[in-house]
Every structure is written in C-alpha cells, then in structure tokens.
Specification:
Isopropylmalate Dehydrogenase; ten-stranded mixed sheet; 11 helices; about 325 residues; 2 domains; two-stranded antiparallel ribbon; alpha/beta; binds nicotinamide-adenine-dinucleotide
Length: about 325
C-alpha cells in the first residue's frame, strides 16, 4: 500500500483524476490517496488557494499526483502550480517524450526525456522599463542550480538505463550565463564519466537542438537545459509525440516528486465528460515507476497504447468522439 497525495485540481482535473485512480486500482496497485484541495475554488473555504494541508500532505507522503489548476487572469492571483513548485523546491521539470500511439506521432523514433531547470533563468521575473522605449529582463544562472539539474539528469539516466545526456544551451552568444551553465554541465559530466563511463555526454546549441529533435530524434536520449529553453523544447516535444492530451510530466526535488500532465485545466470542456485522461494517466505511470510498481506501469502503458493504436475509442482532442468514461473503460478492459 502506497500513501500518495492527490490534488484533483479544477476544470477537467476532477474528471481525469477520478479516471486515473480507477485505472490504477484496476491494475491492482493499492494506493491510499490522501486527497487535498487547492485552487481558486477553495478560497472561500480556507481563505487561500493553497492551504497548508497541501504542503503537509506532500511533505509527509513525498509523492503527489496533481491535476491541473486554473490561474485566473488579471486577478493578482499567483499561480498555485508555480507556488507548489517553489515552496517544495521542485527544481527539475521532467518531460518524457515517448511514442505510445503511432498514428499521433510526427516521428516514430522519438524516445527522449527533457530536464528543464525550474527555478531560475529568465523566469525569475526581474524586469523593468528603461524609459518609455525599452525594457530589460534579467536572466539568472547559478552554479548551484546548474549543477543540481545536470546531476538530476545523470541520476535519472542511470536509474532508467539511458545512454546519453545532452546539455542544451546558447553559450555561443550568452557567454556568461549559458557559458556558466555549460561549464557546470561539463564538470558534472566529468564526475559521472569516472563512475558511469557508459553514459555518453555532449552538448548542443538550442536552435540546432530543435532541428535535430525533428530530424534525427533517434540520436537523443536525456536532454538538460535552463528554464526558458526547457519550456519551449518540451512543448516542441509534446507536439512531436501527439499533443497535449498525451504528454506527461513530473516535478522533482531532492526528496519530493509531484506528477502532473503538461496541459492545463481546459475550462472550455470542463464538466462535459470530454477530457482525455491519458496525459495524467501517463504521468501516473511515471509515478508508479517511481514507486517501483514497474509491472503495473508497463501494463497500463500497454493498455493505453493498444486503445490508441486501435483508434476506435478516442476522445475529441484525438479526433474521436468517445467520452472520458468510455476511454477509461476501454483502457481498463485492455488491462
Ligand atoms: P489548456 O491546456 O488547459 O487547454 C488548451 C486546449 O487544449 C484547450 O482547447 C483544451 O480544451 C485542450 N485540452 C487540454 N487538455 C486536454 C485534455 N486532457 N483533453 C482534451 N482537451 C484538452 O491550456 P490553457 O487554456 O492555456 O489554460 C487553461 C488554464 O489552465 C489556465 O488557467 C492556466 O493557467 C492553467 N494551466 C495550469 C497548468 C497546471 O496546472 N500545471 C498548466 C497549464 C495551464
């Protein structure tokens, strides 16, 4: 029995979270879900969109499955998603890009994992106007954050039997900031070359990397990069494997792991039994691997691939007309 925090989220969150919990139970994994609430909808009840119980539960269980949470526009309301990552120091945003359904992928050879540094870079939000005619944004790259994200990518490569780590940067132009990231990436790679010589290391300039991902994806395995590049490259990757409805993710710190889909709360289809639960389900599959439930993870992954490849029960985003309930049932029937 595993203890896992569940934040169902809002919008389509509750529908897809329930579907995922049902499929995991059907696969025979026993999880004691510690359900906690967060988001704009709980403001009246708790006086905050992010009650302390959420952190208490995640800190206790160390593992959470999280549905999407809406960030209201123009309300001075900070993103609950960002606040969770910050408070728990989840510095690695990780997006595995794997082809599960041939019909939806742009290239069948894609099997890589993007490690995005999640705490600094251009996303520290330090900006100002310079007079009326210009604006400046400050990009921060530290040795500490660079070292730990690259280390995290190597540790993952070792754990998952991956063969190569590629550091992605623009150090040819940004010689100080990206130069420092690359220098630390090379330092960490030199350390791992002593203990794990089987893992290859190289580096690529980010624009070239984007082209390579599309043209020669088979040459890449684990990619690690600063925040902004990670944001863009991982969405490019999501597009290559079939879009938002299929793209899973996880946020890792030193001890805590929070698993969530790449997509948001899809308010346009919320409550209509139309949402595709697969991206959150693939995130849960990553969680099961983290919990060492490999056999169940493989079985769920295969059941989903079978349903998608058969092409009979597909949600609207994948060009079908099946409901959330129908695709959930089809996956369970395939388990
Ligand atoms: P979105 O991902 O919610 O939706 C984009 C489009 O994709 C919509 O048309 C939606 O219907 C569709 N879509 C997304 N997920 C789907 C699924 N599982 N099945 C079927 N269709 C799906 O992006 P958005 O509209 O830009 O954001 C909506 C809200 O979600 C915003 O408030 C945003 O801040 C929030 N958001 C949260 C997270 C998170 O919780 N980690 C991530 C991204 C966005």
């Amino acid at each position: 029995m595993h203890n896992v925090t569940m934040i169902a989220g809002d919008g389509i969150g509750p529908e897809i979270s329930n579907a995922v919990a049902e499929i995991i139970a059907a696969a025979g994994v026993e999880i004691n879900w510690d359900r906690v609430e967060a988001g704009a909808g709980v403001m009246d009840k708790y006086g905050t969109p992010l009650p302390e119980q959420v952190f208490e539960s995640i800190r206790k269980n160390k593992v959470a499955l999280k549905g999407p949470i809406t960030t209201p526009v123009g309300s001075g309301f900070r993103s609950v998603n960002v606040a969770i990552r910050k408070e728990l120091d989840l510095y690695a945003n990780v997006r595995p890009l794997k082809v599960h359904a041939k019909a939806f992928a742009q290239n069948q050879a894609i099997d890589m994992v993007v490690f995005r540094e999640n705490t600094e870079g251009l996303y520290v939000g330090i900006e100002h106007y310079v007079g009326d005619e210009a604006a400046e944004s400050i990009k921060i790259i530290t040795r500490k954050a660079s070292r730990r994200i690259v280390r995290s990518a190597f540790e993952y490569a070792i754990r998952e039997g991956r063969k190569k780590v590629t550091a992605v940067h623009k150090a040819n132009i940004l010689k100080f900031s990206d130069g420092l990231f690359l220098e630390e990436a090379r330092n960490i790679a030199a350390e791992y070359a002593q203990t794990h010589p089987e893992i290859e290391f190289d580096d690529k300039i980010v624009d070239n990397m984007c082209m390579q991902m599309v043209q020669y994806p088979e040459q890449y395995d684990v990619l690690v990069m600063p925040n902004l590049y990670g944001d863009i490259v991982s969405d490019l990757g999501a597009g290559l494997i079939g879009g938002l409805g299929l793209a899973p993710g996880m946020n890792l710190g030193d001890e805590i792991a929070v698993f969530e889909a790449v997509h948001g709360s899809a308010p346009d289809i919320a409550g209509q039994n139309k949402a595709n639960p697969v991206a959150l389900l693939f995130s849960a599959v990553l969680m099961l691997r983290h919990l060492k439930e490999k056999e169940a993870a493989d079985r769920i992954e295969k059941a989903v691939s079978d349903v998608l490849n058969e092409g009979k029960v597909l949600t609207v985003d994948l060009g079908g007309n099946a409901s959330t309930d129908q695709i959930t049932e089809a996956i369970i029937a395939n388990l």
